[in-house]
Amino acid sequence: MSATRRQFLSAASALGAGIAFTGTLSEVFAGTAAAQSLGHTGYGPLVPDPNGLLDLPKGFRYTVLSREGDRLRSGEGPVPSHHDGMAAFAGRAGRTHLVRNHENGATARIPVPAVSGLTYDPAGKGGCTALTLDRHQRVLSERVAIAGTAVNCAGGPTPWGTWLTCEETEDRAGTNGYTKDHGFVFEVHPTDPHRTGAVPLTALGRFQHEAVAIDPRDGVLYETEDAFQKPFGLFYRFLPHRPLGGVGSLRAGGRLQAMRVPGVADLSAVRETGARFDGIEWVDVPDPLAAVTPTRFQDYGPGGITHAQKLEGCYWGGGGVYFVSSFARGADGSAADHYGQVWRYDPAHRRLTLAVVFGPDTDVRLPGESPDNICLAPGGGLMVCEDGNGAQHVFGLTRRGEVYALARGRQNIGTDQRPEWGEFAGVTFAPDGATMYVNCYTPGTTFAVTGPW
């Protein structure tokens, strides 16, 4: 292992964000289109929204595309609860197609309506909805894309233009009234969901899935597992039998493996940004369907396997896959505390690097902790959805290490003393880069944000 350290870089004092980043940030952008730009240094202070929804910098504006409880334009029922992971796909005539997860468990207030041919388990309340927008961000259609799943958290787009939605649960048939096992990944077509139906991609494993990213060169899939308690989640790769085979090709199966970092049992123990590990190993998962034992509990032989608490966002860029550990707490059993990490795995060199560390080392209570969904901004830099305590933000991070707040959800405290807004999720950009889409988890709301990007 080699390690380097940079001075903390923070715009917290100027923005009141209470967030710091360390690390050689060029790791995050090397080889990507975003590397052509240093990214913006910020757009100025956030302006309070008179409508009490979303604070943005001057010159930016938002449109509410959809809110939970409204009627789906298809007439299939109300817009479901708990808006989470999301992706945008290019359509004809300047249209954009959004596919949006609904992280609904057994007690969700508004389930995804069951639709014939698109429902996996009639007792499941989760799933996805799909929106089609015109070039002016007007909603042309909104419909169910898959139903009968459970706790659809994040996922990832495929190179052939579909969405992989992930169930963050391991509930079996007979639990919470379910009639089928859960904990799978499903493929969702953004414009013709009946082409993909409601078929679990069982070879990708049954565990608490969070997100997926695909290497567009060879079709290898990378998967994160979001586990709160020990033993924590694993980072997986899937070697498909039909790599880059197009819609439905993942049903042909493949080989599921888990990452082993030699000498590192818990990624939270690594503290120095720039820390690098060569010779990463991949070990076959003994029982991907977890018929008896959850995959993270299984026996991986001498050397064990490498765990990490709260593995969340996952995306591909610049010849490597990036994945997020949202936080780690020693009190929960992690080897050390941290407030967010971004790791980069380089398949060509079998190398793992700690690229970014979030938050000051001394104060977990500050906002700016717990990165969740994350994406590359078209003009350079990262956009990060915060899932921590206090006010919730979408932060931008430039290649220079400068942090700025791009959006803040208004914390209107009701009579029950609970915030009205939940975390941000599903940040993504339109194919032309002119619009950022982002969800508020609760009450479920999808925004389109435009301005002087």
Automatic annotation (TrEMBL):
Residues 1-22 form the signal peptide. InterPro entries: PhoX, TAT_signal. It holds the Pfam family PhoX. Keywords: Signal. It comes from the Bacteria. Coiled coil: none annotated. SUPFAM superfamilies: Thermostable phytase (3-phytase) (SSF50956). The keyword Signal applies. This is Tat pathway signal sequence domain protein. It comes from Streptomyces rubradiris (Streptomyces achromogenes subsp. rubradiris).
